[in-house]
Design brief:
Elements (H helix, E strand, L loop, with lengths): L2 E5 L20 E2 L2 E2 H11 L4 E6 L3 H8 L8 E6 L5 H8 L8 E6 L2 E3 L3 H11 L3 E6 L8 E5 L5 E6 L6 H4 L4 E9 L14 H12 L2 E5 L4 E3 L3 H17 L12 E2 L4 E2 L3 E3 L4 E2 L4 E2 L3 E3 L4 E2 L4 E3 L1 E3 L4 E2 L4 E3 L1 E3 L4 E2 L4 E4 L5 E3 L4 E2 L4 E4 L4 E3 L4 E2 L8
Parallel strand pairs: 1-4, 1-6, 4-5, 8-12, 14-17, 15-18, 16-19, 17-20, 18-21, 19-22, 20-23, 21-24, 22-25, 23-26, 24-27, 25-28, 26-29, 27-30, 28-31, 29-32
Antiparallel strand pairs: 2-3, 6-11, 7-13, 8-11, 9-10
Length: 376
């Protein structure tokens, strides 16, 4: 029986202020947490148990995910008292890994990749380590692999700084979905902070049993707010291209008279939208949100329990849980300068918040009392 370890303990510093009150693996992608999305893909691949390696806000992760019964799989927790790095976190979970083969996933990855396909490839190659590979325009944020004609990894370089642009489209990155044989755990010393990518992968490459399965489709590392927004938008487009975007609108939401919903959108259960609104495109609205009359929302992500007052317009924004926006408010960002309001921020009536070219963010529980314009 195959198990999986998901690394879920990072601080998510590049996603602040949203991560001030929630760990990154609990960010919503089309109204499902990153962890739920990954767990369900592992269930589909036949994995019998998921081990969550947790540290930052560990109790919040445990409260949300629980024992896994709601996903049809057993979930176990391996808590780090101090951060141990990617290798140390896997070693810390060793006591729960009692089989020969296991998945290791980064907890901030979104993809359309078939995990079962990777598992079959790993077994067919009789590999010690198999990595999902993906081509990106700028690989300097990731680990890149040089492969031979049989997709055997010849060299692994973590976060290279000198990759030429013309080479970037030939070198797949480590996409954060890996399959190991448990023998690799013998290479990791216990209780120490170890980087799997920098310290363990090169040793495995030298053994000659490391393979990469390159894949196409959608893949995102949700490391920055713009990555989080893009992942949601592109997945909306993906579902629309398959003719499945209507499945993202809950039948248990209420939409008022003369309101237009421009797809693709995702609207969760318990949402109430008033009359004469325009919602979408590329908009995600979380559970139990309340949207007033005459509201316009596009290219934005609203977490659960958000409140938006009458005749307010929102574009290119991320609103955390419990954010409350007053009436006659204009909030508008762009691709370079989105608006980010962390949990429970309150925006007073009749304000204008603009973030053209310059990101605008507010920390949890702040109150916005005055207009905000670029370069102010």
């Amino acid at each position: 029986m195959v198990k999986a370890v998901i690394l879920s303990g990072g601080f998510g510093t590049r996603l602040r202020p949203l991560t001030c009150s929630r760990p990154k693996p609990l960010f919503p992608i089309l109204n499902k947490t990153l962890l739920e999305t990954q767990i369900m893909k592992l269930v589909k691949a036949g994995v019998s148990e998921v081990i969550l390696a947790i540290n930052y806000m560990a109790e919040v992760v445990q409260a949300v995910i629980g024992d896994g019964s709601k996903y049809g799989i057993k979930v176990t927790y391996s808590e780090e008292i101090e951060p141990l790095g990617t290798g140390g976190a896997v070693k810390n979970a060793e006591k729960f890994i009692d089989g020969d083969t296991f998945f290791q996933l980064n907890g901030d990855i979104v993809s359309t990749f078939d995990f079962a396909q990777l598992l079959k490839y790993h077994k067919d190659k009789k590999a010690e380590l198999t990595l999902a590979g993906y081509i990106v325009e700028d690989p300097s944020r990731f680990g890149v692999m040089k492969l031979d004609g049989q997709n055997k990894v010849q060299q692994f370089v973590e976060k290279p700084k000198d990759v030429k642009k013309e080479d970037a489209f030939q070198l797949p990155i480590n996409a954060g979905v890996n399959i190991f044989e448990s023998s690799i755990l013998n290479l990791i010393p216990p209780g120490k902070k170890i980087s799997m990518e920098r310290e363990i992968f090169p040793q495995l490459v030298d053994r000659g049993k490391v393979y990469c399965l390159p894949f196409s489709g959608l893949w995102f590392d949700v490391g920055l707010p713009k990555d989080f927004m893009l992942a949601n938008k592109m997945l909306l487009e993906y579902y629309k291209s398959k003719g499945e975007d209507q499945t993202l609108v809950s039948p248990n939401c209420t939409i008022g008279k003369n309101t237009t919903v421009e797809t693709p959108v995702a609207i969760e259960s318990g949402v109430t939208i008033g009359s004469n609104c325009h919602i979408g495109p590329y908009t995600i609205i979380g559970k139990n949100a309340k949207i007033g009359d005459g509201v316009q929302i596009s290219q934005s992500v609203l977490f659960e329990n958000v409140r938006v007052g009458n005749f307010t317009s929102i574009k290119e924004a991320i609103l955390g849980t419990g954010v409350s926006v007053g009436q006659w408010v204009k909030m508008e960002g762009d691709s370079e300068g989105m608006i980010i309001l962390a949990d429970h921020v309150y925006v007073q009536n009749k304000l204008t918040l603009l973030a053209w070219g310059t990101p605008l963010s507010r920390c949890p529980w702040e109150e916005v009392k005055e207009n905000i314009f670029p370069n102010m």
